[in-house]
Structure formats: C-alpha cells, structure tokens
From TrEMBL, chain A:
Entry similarity comment: Belongs to the ATPase A chain family.
Alphabetically ordered keywords of this record: ATP synthesis, Cell membrane, CF(0), Hydrogen ion transport, Ion transport, Membrane, Transmembrane, Transmembrane helix, Transport
GO terms under cellular component: plasma membrane; proton-transporting ATP synthase complex
Membrane topology: Multi-pass membrane protein
Membrane-spanning residues: 46-64, 101-125, 131-151, 158-184, 204-225, 232-251
HAMAP family listed in its UniProt record: ATP_synth_a_bact
Protein name: ATP synthase subunit a
Compartment(s): Cell membrane; Membrane
GO molecular function: proton-transporting ATP synthase activity, rotational mechanism
Function: Key component of the proton channel; it plays a direct role in the translocation of protons across the membrane.
Pfam families cross-referenced by the UniProt entry: ATP-synt_A
NCBIfam families: ATP_synt_6_or_A, PRK05815.2-4
UniProtKB/TrEMBL annotation, chain B:
Name of protein: ATP synthase subunit b
Family membership noted in the UniProt record: Belongs to the ATPase B chain family.
CDD domains given in the database record: ATP-synt_Fo_b
GO cellular component, one term: plasma membrane
Transmembrane found in the keyword field: yes
Length: 258, 182
C-alpha cells in the first residue's frame, strides 16, 4: 500500500497540479539543523519531539506537584490520577512484588501516552509511530521480563511453557506453541503500537489530501475531524494496552506457574 | 565516509522531491538515531520519575492517608469523649432522680409518722371523750332507773291503796323490784 501511495504521489508530482498525496512524509526523520546526513548522534525532529515529551512529562508530574498539597489543585490531581492509575494497574495485575518495577512501567506509560498525544498536534512528528522506537520499548520489556523471570524463579521459569494442567500427551505441543507465542510477544507488542499510530496518522493525511478538491472538501474535513477524535482515543488506548501488556508479562515472569 | 552516507541516505529513503520512498518506518538508516535518542529520553524520564516525581507524589499520597487516618482517629476520640460525657450525664441524672426519690420517700415517711401520731392522739382523745360520755350516760341511765323505780313503787302503792288493800311497803318494794329486774 505504501509503495502504491508513493507511486501515486510521484505521479501527482509528475502531472504537476493534480492530487498530491504524501501521507508518509510526516514520518520522515530530518536533521534539525541543515540538510546533512542523519547520524546516530544528529539532533533530528525525533530529538525535538522526544525532548518536548520529556518537558511535558516534567510539567505534568513535577511542575504540577510542586506545591505538595494535601488537598491537591487541578494539575496535582492530574499527576496523582496518572500515578494512581498505573500504580493500581501494576498492583492488580503483577501483584505486590510487581510494585518494585512501578517506576519503570510508569516511565513507559508516560512516554507513550504523552508522545502519542503530542503526535496529534498538527505538523508534529510522532515518535511512537516508528517501529524502531516501539521495538526498542517492546524489546526492553521482553528482555527485562525474561531476565527477571529467570533471576526470580531460576529454571522454574520454564514452567511457563509447560502447561501442567493439560493432558500429558498435549504438553509438548502446547510447549512449542507457548514458546512461539512468547517470542512473538515483542513483535506484536511493538507493531501494535506503531501500526495503530502510523495508520491513523496516514489515513488522516490521506483524507486531508482530498480537501484539495472543492467538491469533496466538506466531507474530507468531516472525515478528518472524526478520525482525529478516533485517534485521540487510540492515542490513549494504545498507551494503556502497551502498559497493561507489560504488566501481564511481568506477572508471568514473577509467577510463571499457570 | 560521512559524505558517502549522506548521498546514500538521501537516495535510499527520501526522493529528490523531498517525499518519502517507501515506508519511512523501515528506513534503517534512521534507526540508530531514533534508538539513541529514545534511550536518552527513556533514561531522562526514568530518572525524573524515579528520583523526583514518584517519591514526591507517593509522599503526598502517604501524607494525605496519614492525615485522613489521624482525622478519623481524632474523630473517634471525640466520639468516645462525647459518649463518656453522655454516660456521666446519664449517671448524674440517675443519681439526681434517686436522690429526689429518697427525699420524697423520707418526707412521705415523716408526714406519715406525723399523721399517725396525730391520728393516735385524736383516737386517744376520742376514746377519753367516749368513756366520759359513756360514764355520763350510765349515770343518767342509773338515775333514770331509780326514778322509774320510785315512780313504779309510788304508782304500785297508789294502785294497791285504790284497790283497798293494806299497803305493805316492804312487799310492794319487793314486787316492783322483782318486776323491774325481769
């Protein structure tokens, strides 16, 4: 689909003045200064929007709570709400011994949710739409959860793949399925987030492209508005899903027995 | 080397018109940059949260919980005090009521004693008067009887005389006395 769209875009350019769809251009990584190459250290729009993400998180969680009031004001309530939301999630799903990893999960959630919402600002660069970003997030979860599992339970962690409640004959088959599903986790974990965010943004861009035709412009604006609303939902839900799955994986690592 | 990479990057991911070739998400030339800045961002966020934000929020929440617990404890204290005061009040009320009943009973007993004494006195008085009166009555009755005797004797003598018989004083008296007794 992507290559097709690009093909259309190229054709549009060639025709000079026709419909020009560039739904993927919003995802291009550009250096902030000059037009040079993108090295690993180059400050790019990725850097800019991640820095803004950090600033927004700081504003919500640190600036908002600076009064340390027993009776919270509005901004402190937001910070406490976010804290309580994730804390309860970790406690409910991963259990009491999962609370130790709460700062890590809270960092993940805050980064994803803030980056998702920042990406919804028109002309913004959405860092979480890139598989490179979400794959690192998911791999970090996968690796740390696996390490925690082996450190906490030793070889008993392998019991996660040995479904003791199933009939003995089925267990080897189930073990293979369980192992495959375990290693697919980081893939689905990362693609779910990046895919949802990227698809939403690309579709909005495509509909926005149709606004160039006067006849269907109202419909296009309407569709963009509706999709934007949907994307606001998706921005939160995907952050929530990523976090809750992290908690589930953590629970598996802490209590591998079925 | 850098210049080589430049041309390669522009060539592989971004077309000459500045629009993306293929999925920008799959442009591996940008991966190191994204991963590097993501790691920086995550580390910064983690330290901001773990060192500043989360301890602060949890302290605030703990403080609030403490305040609420203290307030509830204080409220319980006050409630206990109120109950104590109520008990004391009830006790005082019961004491006062008992005292009042005691006083009333005492007073009643006093009055009763006084009354009994007065009634006894009056009874004695009445008894004396009655005795006196009975004495007088018996006196009167006695004198009346004597009068009747005399009248009867006289009448009897006169009747005997009128019949022409010998009046024997002695016999008449005995006859009259005999009749009066019967």
């Amino acid at each position: 689909m992507a290559t097709e769209t690009t093909g259309h875009a190229e054709a549009g350019h060639a025709a000079e003045g026709g419909l020009a769809f560039h739904p993927m251009d919003q995802f291009i990584v550009k250096p902030l200064f000059g037009d040079g190459a993108v090295h690993w250290y180059t400050p790019t729009n990725v850097t800019l929007w991640m820095a803004i993400t950090v600033l927004v998180i700081g504003a919500i969680l640190i600036l908002g709570t600076r009064s340390r009031a027993v009776i919270p004001n509005r901004s402190q309530s937001i910070a406490e709400l976010a804290y309580g939301f994730i804390y309860k999630m970790v406690e409910d799903i991963a259990g009491k011994d999962g609370v130790k990893y709460f700062p890590y999960i809270m960092s993940l959630f805050m980064f994803i949710v803030v980056a998702n919402f920042l990406g919804l600002i028109p002309t913004a660069f959405t860092t979480t739409s890139h598989i490179a970003v979400t794959a690192v997030l998911a791999l970090a979860v996968f690796i740390s959860v696996t390490v925690i599992g082996f450190v906490k339970n030793g070889s008993a962690f392998l019991g996660l793949f040995w479904v003791s409640s199933a009939p003995l004959a089925l267990r080897p088959v189930l073990a293979i399925i369980e192992v495959i599903s375990y290693f697919v986790r980081p893939v689905s974990h990362s693609i779910r987030l990046a895919g949802n965010v990227m698809a939403g943004h690309a579709v909005i861009k495509v509909f926005a492209g149709f606004a160039a035709i006067a006849a269907i412009a109202p419909l296009s604006v309407l569709a963009v508005t509706a999709l934007y609303g949907l994307e606001v939902l998706v921005a939160f839900i995907q952050a929530y899903v990523f976090t809750i799955l992290t908690c589930v994986y953590l629970k598996d690592a802490l209590h591998p027995s079925h | 080397m850098a210049t080589e990479t430049t041309t390669e990057v522009v060539g592989s991911c971004v077309g000459p018109t500045g629009s993306a070739i293929g999925l920008p998400q799959l442009c591996f030339d940008w991966f190191p940059n994204q991963i590097f800045w993501l790691l920086v961002t995550l580390v910064v966020i983690y330290f901001l949260l773990a060192r500043i934000a989360l301890p602060r929020i949890s302290a605030v929440l703990a403080e609030r919980q403490g305040t609420i617990t203290n307030d509830i404890a204080a409220a319980d204290d006050l409630k206990a005090q109120a109950q104590e005061a109520e008990a004391a009040y009830d006790k005082a009320l019961a004491d006062a009521r008992a005292e009042a009943q005691k006083i009333a009973a005492e007073t009643r007993a006093e009055i009763q004693a006084e009354l009994d004494r007065s009634i006894a006195e009056a009874d004695a008085d009445i008894a004396a008067k009655t005795a006196e009166s009975e004495a007088a009555i018996s006196e009167i009755r006695k004198s009346a009887l004597e009068s009747v005797q005399i009248v009867a004797r006289d009448t009897a003598r006169e009747i005997v005389r009128a019949l022409g018989a010998q009046t024997d004083e002695q016999a008449i008296n005995a006859a009259v006395d005999d009749r009066l007794k019967g």
